[in-house]
Amino acid sequence: MATAASKTPAAGISQVRVFVDASTGMRGFMHPNAPGETGSQFQRSITELLSNINDQRASNTAAPAYYFVEESTAKNPNALRPTTYAELSNTVSTGIQNPALGTEMPNMLREILKLQKGKPGTVSVVISDFIYAPPDAKQTWKVKTDVKDALNEAPASDLAISIFAGTSEFRDKFFPGNRTHFQVLKGSRLPYYVWVLGQPAAVAAATPWLKPLMGNDFERVSFNTLAPPAAVFEHFGNVGEWYVDKTGSRQTQPLTLHFTKSLSRQEPAEFVLGLDLSNAPAAEAASLPKQLQLDDAGTGAILAKVWAARDEPKAPRSPALPTYTHLARVHLERLPGRKAATVRLVLPRTQPTWVTKYTTLNDSNIAAQGPKTFLLSEVLQGVQDYYDQQPAGREVWALPVQLQPAD
């Protein structure tokens, strides 16, 4: 069986900071409720998320910090107003009493990343409708550049971004991104977003308290995040003579195989990896058998098979198999030279289908369109462009496996 690698992300969080957009445009998600009403989907999900975050106050170096995102003015250029958990949670559940004019989304991201700079382990959670258009309607082609420029406040190699998209009832004035006249909505569903930003290990460590955003009611896309938990099975589907590097009972990271005998076409090696995608988006997990690829690093290794663990007939007799959602078999016939080689299991990046579904180029009559966000695809293209020179621009994640040839 596999001697499982740790399935709990390393404790990489020093502080969680929460930013809630308190502009007039968000009031439709955060409205007063009559006795007996259950609150909007936004109110229920975000209230639970805030409670989970507040529970982390004793777990990290510093207690969580809370902010309203308001307007930036000449007198007060800082759009981030510190608040308390109690005030923020109460505002979400009972409504925005004094809504702000708001600040442009790129400026909001820039200010949040500035606040995060030089503070390793900080995770920023940003809650907003993320509707953005430049003041000049002739400049909408520039949306992706504005988003990219804002994110450049932090180095792309050291910033992970997970974006969660939900929809909720909206009851108030809706202000279109294309700056036409507002519309009064009485329960139409509109999208809202939660962006989680921080170093990759810190964002991975945030997974347990992000559970309210991981149900079927939410879509998700992530950049520069860690590979899923994985391990090599030592007594299941293995061929050839090799062993796995361990520290105590746990497999080392990166996963490392030591071969005790030379390989050939007549005497190849095979090993099976377990992958745990239980915290991945459902669409990502479902597509893995068809989408997963192997970067063979010149070894000629082949990804022979990828399949769901539930479809493995030996699973009930193998105690470690149910720990993982997917299995991947690698076939290897040679290792070039005497130096170690590192192959990588890679999930290539593709644009999620929900992005197109949630995008509109004209939100002047949003009630007739269904849940859509003005120029959402351009906003996310800005994120993609920010990672253009990084592996994260091409890969959702990559899992390295080091192969050490026989002496």
Automatic annotation (TrEMBL):
This is VWA domain-containing protein. The lineage of its organism: Bacteria, Pseudomonadati, Bacteroidota, Cytophagia, Cytophagales.
